[in-house]
Amino acid sequence: MSILDIFNLTWKPREGIIYRNKIWGRHKNLVWLKPMWQGQPPFPIGKRRQNISKVYVELDKIRYSGSFQVKGNVCTFGILNHRHITELYKTDRQNVKFFKRYTGKSKVHPKFGKIVNETKSYRYLAKVIDSSKITREKILGRQLVRRRGTALVDTKEGILVVAGKSGIFILPGGGAEKGESREKAAIRELREETGLKTISIKYLFSHDDPEYRRIRNLYKIFLVEAVGKIKPDGHEVKHIRFWKPNSDINISNTTKLIIDKYLNEFKNT
């Protein structure tokens, strides 16, 4: 444990370095290798050391996965969502406190051979002092826009929601294929994800993600009446539950916005 950890002192990041999450890869037993065209042999010789880091940004007392960089008196930081930076901000260097914490050492065994790789793990935190002094920046690069059809199945048990491995529940639905309407996409995705067959469908409203998102979803919400035996597909959907007001089910922010609008403006009208 370092002196910084004991006394909770701030840490000074290196100028111009982008601090972001670093991992071994999808499989823990993979060895980190330089590209072979740089002269690296196909299998490493001897012991290798690789640091693994986790980076967080704290904004209004909420901690997010993200990245940050300091150049001169300016700190640029981004908030990570589904492996992509979806929100980018700038602020004065003095408006951010930085912390670095050593979290331990581990050994990673390669897929081939008997070489053991030692790793040192660190956790970095950029804590914004005053959120009123930050400015949002435009995210450069091509924006991906997805047309999505969403099925809202309202039953006596509640509103049907589905979840994958993450455990975050959303309304069933998905992206429309080329030449496919979002109504047909909602019907198809509902059948694929839950096994339910649509017997009636009614368009309710549209909901679009904010324009600054790098991946922007354009939803059309349909009220669906369906029949059949409910069964998750086991691939994209692992769990199916019924949401009710004051339920403890963990639903996504977008799903909450859609359900709230349905309950306040469309149900029983």
Automatic annotation (TrEMBL):
Gene3D superfamilies: Nucleoside Triphosphate Pyrophosphohydrolase. Pfam families: NUDIX. Keywords: Hydrolase. The keyword rRNA-binding does not apply. It comes from the Archaea. PROSITE patterns: NUDIX, NUDIX_BOX. This is NUDIX hydrolase. One of its GO terms (molecular function) is hydrolase activity. Residues 143-267 form the Nudix hydrolase domain.
